[in-house]
Specification:
The chain is mainly alpha-helical. It folds into 2 domains: about 15-245, no CATH class; about 280-370, no CATH class. Helix content is about 80%, strand content about 0%. Helix 4 (about 80-90) runs parallel beside helix 5 and helix 9 (about 200-215) runs antiparallel to helix 10. It is elongated and about 75 Å long. About 35% of the residues are buried.
Length: about 375
């Protein structure tokens, strides 16, 4: 294998018990996904279900790429991102279908169908759905101590679970619209596919930001309070969104006055967090400049997103694909090394031996790539 394309150092093999738990979770998620799709297909009919599925799936890669574009310094593992998306599309959807369905029956019986539907849409559904998606973020926060590093990661994982949930939910909406005719289909696609593809990712990002602040902050109590407020904000935004759909004429007002500013605010938070990540990289790699392992100009490059992009473009122009891949690998390894040191300095340890082994692997790979790019000699 070309050393420029080497993947990140392998993690220790999971313990048999944990591996078995992962298999159970994977099979359970797959079962939830199949059952959810069967329930939706039974409601729509084969033709409307097939068309709804096609319309819902086609734009998803574009939305995923846009979400991943946010994670510029330390991209998350592709398999973990895929699993997070799958949770939103399977388990979260199944839980929402089951719990919302049961609650809706109770609400209709208590308040009547008309009032019950409004209560279910505005109050119970946002709570149920944000909890169903939020469980995935809590699991990732707990299990991925060496990956879930801050606000940017929280937003990216939240976007993945939200996009998965929205994709399957849209199958139902698009299917019903197709059954009603062409005009309804076009309107539904414009509203859900073009104007509001970020809705579910936006809602869940509130909780993701909160969990990211738990990881970044030094006061756990304050961090968990922010996370709880983030979950409440996710539910509130979701409730407002559903409220605007329940009352004619409210959608555009809430969209312009609440949803668009909220989306811009999340992007601003991500931008601020990216600057923080740049400072983390500088702080934990600066000693490499002092020992002559890395030119000072290269450290400046590693700490800025724009400089990384420019360096990658220059590498491709001067050395083709091979050098471009080497440059990209250098950026990734530098980020992994810096954040590994940041985590261990904050007590987020995998154990002294595992931490030391990971450090040695990163340093070896960093030295190899720097030598390939003729940036320095071997790192001591």
């Amino acid at each position: 294998m070309d050393s420029a394309t080497s993947i990140q150092p392998p993690l220790p093999a999971p313990a048999p018990r944990r591996a078995q738990q992962h298999r159970v979770l994977t099979r359970g998620a797959a079962l939830c996904g199949v059952m959810s799709l069967l329930l939706i297909a039974a409601d729509l009919g084969p033709a409307a279900f097939a068309l709804g599925m096609a319309i819902a799936v086609v734009p998803v890669p574009v939305y995923v790429v846009l979400a991943l574009w946010l994670d510029r310094f330390e991209p998350e593992p592709a398999w973990t991102l895929a699993q997070t998306f799958a949770w939103g599309a399977t388990v979260a959807v199944f839980l929402a279908l089951m719990v919302n369905g049961l609650l809706q029956v109770l609400l209709d019986g208590t308040w009547g169908v008309e009032v019950g539907e409004v209560i279910g849409s505005v109050f119970t559904a946002p709570i149920v759905e944000e909890l169903a998606k939020g469980v995935a973020l809590l699991f990732l926060f707990s299990e991925l101590r060496d990956e879930f590093d801050g606000v940017v990661d929280g937003v990216v994982y939240a976007s993945m679970v939200g996009l998965g949930f929205a994709m399957v939910e849209n199958v139902q909406y698009y299917g019903h619209a197709v059954a009603e005719g062409t005009e309804s289909s076009v309107l539904t696609f414009v509203l859900r596919g073009l104007m509001a593809p970020f809705a579910h990712p936006l809602f869940t990002s509130m909780f993701g930001i909160g969990l990211g602040m738990v990881r970044e902050g030094r006061s756990k109590a304050r961090g968990w309070l922010v996370a709880a407020l983030g979950l409440a904000a996710a539910m509130a935004l979701h409730a407002l969104w559903n409220l605007s759909a329940s009352f004619e004429g409210w959608f555009l007002v809430l969209y312009l006055l609440v949803m668009v500013p909220s989306f811009i605010a999340v992007l601003w938070v991500v931008r601020t967090s990216l600057h923080r990540e740049g400072r983390v990289i500088r702080e934990h790699l600066e000693h490499l400049v002092h020992v002559g392992a890395l030119p000072a100009g290269e450290l400046d490059c590693l700490c800025r997103v724009r400089s990384r992009l420019a360096a990658s473009a220059t590498a491709f122009r001067k050395g083709g694909l091979r050098r471009w891949r080497a440059r990209r690998e250098l950026h990734r390894i530098a980020s992994e090394l810096a954040f590994h040191r940041w985590r261990t300095a904050r007590g987020l340890s995998m154990g002294p031996e595992a931490d030391a082994a990971r450090e040695a692997e990163y340093m070896q790979r960093f030295s190899e790539i720097c030598s390939m790019l003729e940036l320095q000699g071997n790192v001591e």
